[in-house]
Write a sequence for this structure.
């Protein structure tokens, strides 16, 4: 308990975020018996993993005071690159996955370059990029995600989203790996130190020899990577890519990051909290769906619960 | 006995240089707007073999008015170093209420307008209280309230419909003359009065450095609440204009104003880091955004590539603006 | 001096204040008589600023009371203003993207038609008001972000003085000021005091305390430990620190005659004329002169932030290019900037993270930091520099200013840089820590570091440096050898030239 | 040569395959007789943004087109500008997502009947008894409301049917699948599915949750859903599939041409919606096993009373078919 008190506020928020996710699960069980069943929990966590992956990238850029509004169409483009490159063939899965991820990295790096080198505000750069990718995808494919494919995601990718290993869905295992890797990257590597330094005080970071441009480009590239990765998994999940499939992930990924206790102005927060935030939001949506209420009530309740959670533990200290 | 420091006075930068430094954002917005106007007239002229006339002016102005109001509202909040994602929700709510309540006469339209503006202010008040008193980050507060306001809007108007009195439409967005320019001018005048008020100065102070502003005795709570309430009121006004030009209501059409108001504010040279910029710039930004749509229309771009061009234009505008700005600022003093 | 009236202009009785777990004030008391200057002295973190913030109504004490003219004071900035209190806070409260005039007139802007603020008139009003205070070198139309730190501090002071306060609280108002500006400030203070204003003044420069204080209260660990009409420096330091200090400045050792490690030829940057300069290892080369005359451009130019626009830099005889701080760090150059909060430290991050940031490449394998190696380096540095902290995991922001400064110095020593650019490193640092920093600087020089040392404190330059170059209008106007250098010589070199200009 | 009619298509949104097919059909038609020689066409997209679409329609007015075909971002949001177009003598025909103003002629299917038909089929299939889920569309839209009302009118007549959950699928397979996956594990056994859109996504979520065999399903005309009717992913489903036909645009185009030629009165047209069941579904005609699940199979019509017949390449690539294009408008 004493340790809890002396914890940095950001670390404490990670615990709060996890507690919130658990509480929402319990709430779900209370209002809708069966909600806490193994299948139900598993299924919800798999859906949360998509949000969680996008939010990993979003978390990186938010940690340096940026934001990535291009995730919807980078995700979508990742999905479409996968289907159009793989043509649904298992043999082409590796190259298709690499192509999709490379696309995400390149687009993200361009975002980063726009922000770091040309000094374009992140909101504008990434919003414009979202439009640019959308236009390119629609224009280049003629609007069809893969008209020549007999099947869409290669079986390997579909298995990734649907199969289990030792009773744990593969998608969840993948997310778990990502959680571990991102947490390690942020906490025990040079890269992580530089990220927090940049997010806390960019001027001082540059004066301490941090390559701010390189880091910024790298972090946005990571965001592109994770958006594309989520796109790949979503194709596996649904079996196909569809236009607009990334749209729900914009605000949700930002919300997950903030509910997870990351400061939107940068420099403070942990991915573990973000992962909990992603779970919270997904559970919340599921509970609201399960409650069988009119759309407008659901919309209002969603907002009220998010604000309630934030009021409970997301308050800033007085300046 | 006072050892004065005058003997060593350094040469000063000239007044023009200072003026440019202080208004750099506004100057850029003006430059981009000018470029956009010229580009529009050129493209229109080439495509249509004539110059844009009254109709084009009127429809452009009428399209720009709701966005101008939403953008100025957004500008208040951005100046405090905040951001408002609930603009779209408030526009929806106002739009929906207008369609349901106004009935047939101009009088009832105007009376209800006042009520709706007050509802907008109340929405802003909720945002402001959560941000200032609840000490929550504006982006998530307004993400939450966006969902709430949209829900309320759908509750008010479950499916598109209702009606706006034609007299009310003619009052706000007369389709035959660019008469809505008056509202833009009024908006700009109101802004410059606000800019010269206690609250206006305090708003900038908060955006510059909130801790310093607090130490200087600025009432942070009051000022932020004023900013968010004005924002909510103006977003509601945008909803009224939208309803008026549509002549009916739809609880979902306002959504696009969230992002487009932010884009307009940025194009208008207002810093997302707070404390710098002007609502006049935001108005210019709204006009630029509107003109880009026109340019793309008359440029007959492939609709599939439309968002590509929008994105590219946005980047070009911001980069060119930045380059011009950099050149002006680096000009030898 | 006026006789001390029975009723204090402002007094604090047994005030306590904690921030989280930190007890900033423990039952501290002070009473300021009208028409007197009351100095608060104490080490960094002794609680001076906290007390001033309480007196100024910016924060409320957890316990204890504040009285004004014997009456209980209302808390809050607005109330304090009504009480006639004016405060210059230690961290400047100027608004960077507003003009000097807007800052100066904040809250009392001239009104025009319809009671609206007459923005057009503001620069002229500000210009007149500044001129009345004898300030004519600062353009009221400039953005505050564009003027030098010293100028900002002067504007901050002017803003408060212009409100004609009955009680004036000055928290380290001179930290960025050079002597002549300090003299100007003291003139203002004396005038106000003679008009009956009760004044609180803090500074870490003993000379200033001795010159201006009518009474001195000494703070230690959050409590007042003594109040004197006069006290000598050694005694005061003993009370502040609980131990005795030897001479403030270390014994000067002669500069070794070695070939220069660093030579600049014809370097230019914004605000500096082509400059030539040579720095040897083991040398402490002082740079002096009035604020705003190009020192910053010289130091930051050498550090590549941004680099010089022209000219040649040679290190050990070889030409090098420094276009970014990374280039500079690679070349073994370190910069300790004046504003440690905005340009040096990451306040919410751990001491450890702050210390090792530039050397992580050395400390990590495959990108992962070797914790053990880092830990021992950090512990060594903390011990070597005597950084007072319970643990290297503390956020650097909770340390006292002097210890923060030591962390910053430690960071650069860890880089094994041999050329140190120290830019006003003792700004806002308490006497004891200054003493430690001086010792450290002298020791580093003896160990062969080459040190370029700028200070706004001429005493410091005079006593510490082997040689001092005085800058004016971006050029070196005097080269003063160190043997029997005095502060007066530096100041007058900086002033003499201005006589010509005027 | 006689002057060509300028006809512009204002399409609010191009982000799903239905809209893409619709635009492609329009493009193809412009290359086919009689339109090739009589119509000069253009088409625009407004990113689902009402004010942009409104501005584009202003542009069309400025370009002095003869007719505007509108698939609207909002049933009401364009009323103002459409009234202006009408006042300037421009023929405005709205289709699919139709507008409410009388200044526009409407071409559509009956959305209430859509929901009602789906529900009637489900009710009959499960014998008026059992648990049913409703997967709805985008909240706040007329189409969603009408389809839901149509369904509710049927449920009222069947007290034995329990609607165990209503949730939004937003007419999008990915959303429908995600939401179904989230909620399904905690629901009791489902006997029937009523789905406005994204039907294949719902079924995939059922398979993932091992809720097989799949219950009888009434849904939209996604290719994926119809594949399930044929047998897909190891499942064969009893289903009714109704499509909002993309060729509504061709009906609108033909109507515009005929009205401008003064060979047809100005009046609204409601066309019957094409539908298939597991009994009638036919590969290559009403389902395309080679194509994506999200492809919209009802780009063309079939049978003796077909409204219009076009080839799959017209829908896919906008390439014209051979010969002339005949669109059958209802007899006057
Ligand atoms: N807002 C705060 N939050 C946490 N700790 C604080 C805060 N303000 C002051 N402190 C702590 O309270 C103690 C007293 O600080 P204060 O600023 O009053 O010292 P000071 O005497 O003014 O020091 P200096 O000479 O360095 O200005 C220090 O330990 C400081 O770290
Ligand atoms: N010769 C000059 N002519 C015009 N402007 C000058 C000149 N020298 C310096 N300045 C201006 O004065 C400002 C401060 O310059 P700079 O920061 O280099 O001086 P400094 O001595 O390092 O300041 P400080 O001592 O306050 O830290 C800059 O804006 C610079 O442009
Ligand atoms: Mg202090
Ligand atoms: Mg200086």
């Amino acid at each position: 308990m004493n340790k809890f008190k002396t914890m940095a506020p950001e670390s404490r928020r990670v615990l709060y975020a996890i507690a919130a996710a658990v509480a929402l699960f319990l709430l779900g069980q209370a209002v809708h018996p069966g909600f806490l069943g193994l299948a139900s929990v598993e299924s919800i966590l798999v859906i949360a993993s998509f949000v969680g992956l996008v939010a990993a990238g979003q978390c990186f850029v938010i940690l340096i005071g940026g934001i990535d509004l291009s995730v919807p169409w980078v995700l979508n483009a990742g999905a479409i690159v996968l289907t159009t490159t793989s043509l649904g063939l298992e043999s082409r899965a590796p190259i298709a996955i690499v192509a999709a991820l490379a696309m995400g990295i390149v687009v993200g790096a361009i975002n980063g370059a726009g922000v770091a080198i040309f000094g374009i505000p992140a909101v504008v750069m990434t919003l414009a990029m979202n439009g640019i990718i959308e236009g390119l995808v629609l224009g280049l494919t003629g609007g069809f995600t893969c008209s020549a494919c007999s099947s869409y995601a290669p079986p390997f990718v579909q298995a990734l989203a649907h199969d289990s290993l030792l009773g744990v869905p593969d998608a969840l295992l993948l997310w778990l790996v990502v959680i571990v890797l991102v947490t390690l990257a942020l906490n025990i590597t040079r890269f992580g130190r530089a990220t927090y330094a940049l997010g806390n005080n960019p001027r001082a970071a540059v004066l301490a020899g941090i390559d701010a441009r390189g880091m910024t480009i790298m972090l946005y590239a990571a965001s592109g990577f994770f958006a594309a990765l989520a796109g790949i998994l979503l194709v596996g999940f649904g079996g196909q890519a569809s236009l607009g499939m990334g749209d729900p992930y914009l605000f949700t990924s930002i919300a997950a990051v903030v509910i997870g206790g990351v400061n939107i102005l940068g420099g403070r927060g942990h991915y573990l909290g973000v992962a909990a935030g992603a779970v919270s939001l997904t559970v919340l949506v599921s509970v609201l769906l399960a409650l069988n209420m009119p759309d407008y009530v659901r919309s209002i309740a969603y907002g009220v619960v998010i604000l309630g959670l934030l009021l409970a533990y997301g308050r800033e200290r007085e300046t | 006995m006072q050892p004065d420091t005058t003997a060593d006075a350094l040469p000063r930068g000239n007044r023009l240089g200072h003026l440019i430094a202080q208004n750099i954002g506004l100057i850029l917005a003006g430059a981009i707007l000018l470029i956009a106007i010229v580009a529009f007239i050129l493209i229109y002229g080439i495509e249509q073999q004539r110059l844009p006339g009254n109709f084009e002016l009127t429809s452009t102005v009428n399209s720009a008015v709701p966005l101008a109001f939403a953008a100025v509202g957004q500008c208040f909040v951005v100046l405090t170093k905040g951001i408002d994602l609930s603009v779209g929700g408030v526009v929806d709510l106002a739009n929906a209420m207008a369609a349901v309540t106004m009935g047939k006469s101009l009088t009832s339209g105007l009376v209800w307008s006042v009520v709706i503006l007050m509802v907008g202010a109340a929405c802003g008040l909720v945002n402001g209280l959560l941000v200032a008193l609840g000490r929550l980050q504006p982006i998530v507060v307004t993400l939450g309230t966006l969902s709430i306001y949209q829900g309320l809007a759908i509750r008010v108007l479950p499916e598109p419909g209702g009606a706006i009195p034609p007299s009310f439409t003619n009052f706000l967005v007369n389709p035959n003359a660019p008469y809505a320019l008056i509202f833009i001018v009024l908006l700009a005048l109101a802004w410059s009065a606000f800019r010269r008020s206690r609250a206006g100065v305090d708003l900038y102070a908060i955006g510059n450095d909130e801790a310093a502003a607090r130490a200087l005795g600025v009432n942070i709570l009051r000022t932020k609440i004023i900013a968010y309430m004005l924002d909510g009121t103006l977003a509601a006004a945008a909803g009224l204009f939208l309803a008026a030009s549509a002549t009916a209501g739809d609880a979902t059409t306002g959504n696009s104003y969230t992002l487009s108001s932010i884009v307009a504010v940025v194009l208008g040279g207002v810093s997302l880091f707070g404390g710098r910029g002007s609502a006049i710039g935001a108005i210019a930004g709204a006009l630029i955004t509107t003109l880009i749509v026109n340019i793309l229309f008359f440029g007959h771009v492939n609709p599939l590539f439309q968002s590509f061009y929008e994105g590219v234009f946005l980047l070009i505008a911001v980069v060119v603006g930045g380059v011009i700005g950099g050149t002006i600022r680096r000009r030898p003093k | 001096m006026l006789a001390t009236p029975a009723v204090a202009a402002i007094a604090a009785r047994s005030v306590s204040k904690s921030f989280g777990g930190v007890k900033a004030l423990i039952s501290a008391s002070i009473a300021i008589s009208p028409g007197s200057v009351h100095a608060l002295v104490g080490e960094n973190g002794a609680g001076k600023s906290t007390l001033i913030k309480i007196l100024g109504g910016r924060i409320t004490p957890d316990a204890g009371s504040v009285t004004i003219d014997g009456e209980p004071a209302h808390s809050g900035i607005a109330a304090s203003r009504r009480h006639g209190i004016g405060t210059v806070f230690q961290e400047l409260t100027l608004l960077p993207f507003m003009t000097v005039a807007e800052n100066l007139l904040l809250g009392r802007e001239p009104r025009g038609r319809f009671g609206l603020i007459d923005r057009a008139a503001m620069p002229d009003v500000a210009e007149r008001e500044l001129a009345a205070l004898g300030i004519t070198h600062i353009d009221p139309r400039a953005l505050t972000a564009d003027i030098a730190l010293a100028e900002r501090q002067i504007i901050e002071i002017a803003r408060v003085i212009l409100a004609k306060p009955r009680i004036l609280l000055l928290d380290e108002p001179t930290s960025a000021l050079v002597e002549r500006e300090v003299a100007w400030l003291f003139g203002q203070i004396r005038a106000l005091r003679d008009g009956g204003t009760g004044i609180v003044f803090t500074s870490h420069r003993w000379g200033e305390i001795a010159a201006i204080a009518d009474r001195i209260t000494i703070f230690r660990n959050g409590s007042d430990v003594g109040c004197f009409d006069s006290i000598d420096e050694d005694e005061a330091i003993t009370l502040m620190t609980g131990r005795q200090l030897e001479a403030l400045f270390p014994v000067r050792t002669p500069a070794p005659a070695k070939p220069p490690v660093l030579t600049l030829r014809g370097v230019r940057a914004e605000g500096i004329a082509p400059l030539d300069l040579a720095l040897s290892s083991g040398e402490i080369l002082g740079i002096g002169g009035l604020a705003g005359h190009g020192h910053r451009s010289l130091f930051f130019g050498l550090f590549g932030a941004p680099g010089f626009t022209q000219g040649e830099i040679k290190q050990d005889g070889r030409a090098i290019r420094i276009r970014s701080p990374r280039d500079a760090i690679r070349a073994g150059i370190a910069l300790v900037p004046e504003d440690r909060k905005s340009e040096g430290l990451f306040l919410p991050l751990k001491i450890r993270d702050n210390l090792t940031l530039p050397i992580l490449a050395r400390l990590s394998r495959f990108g992962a930091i070797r914790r053990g190696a880092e830990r021992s380096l950090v512990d060594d540095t903390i011990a070597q520099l005597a950084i007072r902290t319970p643990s290297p995991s503390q956020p650097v922001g909770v340390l006292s200013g002097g210890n923060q400064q030591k962390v910053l110095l430690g960071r650069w020593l860890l880089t094994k840089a041999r050329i140190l650019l120290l830019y006003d490193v003792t700004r806002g640092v308490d006497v004891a820590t200054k003493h430690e920093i001086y010792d450290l600087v002298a020791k580093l020089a003896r160990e062969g570091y080459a040190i370029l040392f700028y200070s706004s404190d001429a005493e410091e330059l005079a006593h510490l440096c082997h040689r001092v170059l005085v800058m004016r209008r971006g050029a070196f106007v005097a080269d003063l050898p160190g043997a029997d250098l005095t502060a007066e010589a530096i100041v007058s070199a900086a002033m003499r030239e201005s006589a010509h200009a005027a | 040569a006689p002057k060509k009619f300028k006809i512009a298509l204002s399409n609010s949104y191009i982000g799903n395959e239905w809209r893409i097919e619709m635009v492609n059909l329009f493009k193809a038609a412009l290359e086919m007789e009689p339109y090739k020689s009589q119509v000069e066409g253009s088409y625009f997209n407004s990113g689902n943004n009402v004010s942009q679409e409104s501005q584009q329609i202003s542009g069309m007015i400025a370009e002095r087109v003869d007719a505007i075909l509108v698939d609207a971002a909002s049933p009401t949001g364009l009323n103002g500008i459409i009234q202006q177009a009408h006042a300037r003598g421009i023929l405005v025909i709205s289709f699919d997502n139709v507008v409410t103003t009388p200044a526009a002629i409407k071409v559509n299917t009956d959305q209430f009947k859509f929901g009602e038909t789906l529900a009637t089929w489900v009710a009959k299939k499960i014998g008026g008894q059992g648990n049913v889920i409703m997967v709805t569309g985008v909240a706040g839209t007329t189409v969603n409301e009408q389809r839901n009302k149509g369904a509710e009118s049927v449920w009222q007549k069947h007290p034995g049917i329990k609607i165990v959950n209503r949730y939004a699928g937003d007419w999008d397979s990915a959303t429908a699948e995600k939401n179904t996956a989230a909620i399904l594990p905690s629901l009791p056994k489902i006997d029937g599915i009523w789905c406005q859109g994204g039907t294949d996504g719902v079924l995939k979520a059922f398979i993932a949750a091992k809720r097989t065999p799949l219950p009888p399903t009434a849904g939209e005309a996604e290719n994926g859903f119809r594949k399930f009717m044929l047998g897909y992913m190891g499942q064969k489903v009893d289903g009714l599939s109704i499509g909002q036909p993309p060729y509504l645009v061709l009906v609108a185009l033909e109507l515009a041409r005929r009205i401008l030629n003064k060979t047809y009165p100005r009046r609204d047209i409601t066309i019957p919606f094409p539908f298939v069941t597991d009994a009638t579904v036919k590969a290559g005609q009403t389902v395309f096993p080679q194509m994506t699940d999200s492809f919209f199979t009802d780009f063309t019509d079939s049978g003796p009373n077909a409204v219009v017949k076009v080839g799959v390449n017209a829908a896919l690539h906008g390439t014209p078919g051979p010969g002339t294009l005949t669109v059958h408008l209802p007899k006057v």
